[in-house]
Design a protein that fits this description.
6-stranded antiparallel β-sheet
């Protein structure tokens, strides 16, 4: 009996610790990791930065108790508390990242949709050559205006 109990506890811990992967979500469950559509991996405890709401009414794919989260959270960092899938076999399953909101209720992010629409900033986003050049030019201008020093640029 003891061996059976240990085996069941081991199986539960393995099941919970599995990595969910975009396109392979087959049930409602909680996970510790999620491999996104682009191949980036997010984990419980990771910090995400909220982007810009896709609507004047607030975030369309970030909600608390079914209500849109206010635009005042734009640009704020949040820490992922849970990664959960919701849905059913017929319509499919989606990954939601959850974080502590205001009050007792958690805030849910429809991760892939919010990422695609810019409601959360892409942690894996690579900048283009043009964006890199623009950033270097801006840094050079700030250096020339003595707003920053070379020591600031190294940090």
């Amino acid at each position: 009996m003891r061996n059976l109990t240990v085996f069941l506890l081991f199986m539960v811990s393995i099941t919970y610790s599995q990595t969910a992967e975009f396109g392979n979500l087959t049930k409602k469950s909680e996970y510790k990791n999620y491999k996104t559509k682009s191949g980036y991996k997010i984990n419980i405890g990771d910090t995400l930065t909220l982007g810009i709401p896709s609507s004047d009414l607030g975030f369309a794919y970030i909600s608390q108790n079914g209500q849109r989260v206010s635009h005042t959270l734009a640009g704020k960092p949040i820490v992922i508390d849970k990664l959960k899938t919701y849905g059913n076999k017929k319509s499919g399953y989606k990954m939601y990242a959850q974080f502590k909101g205001y009050g007792l209720l958690p805030v849910l992010i429809d991760y892939e949709t919010a990422l695609e629409l810019g409601e959360i900033k892409n942690p894996d986003k690579k900048i283009t050559r043009e964006q890199a050049i623009a950033q270097l030019k801006e840094a050079k201008e700030l250096l020339d205006l003595e707003v920053i020093t070379q020591k600031n640029m190294k940090n």
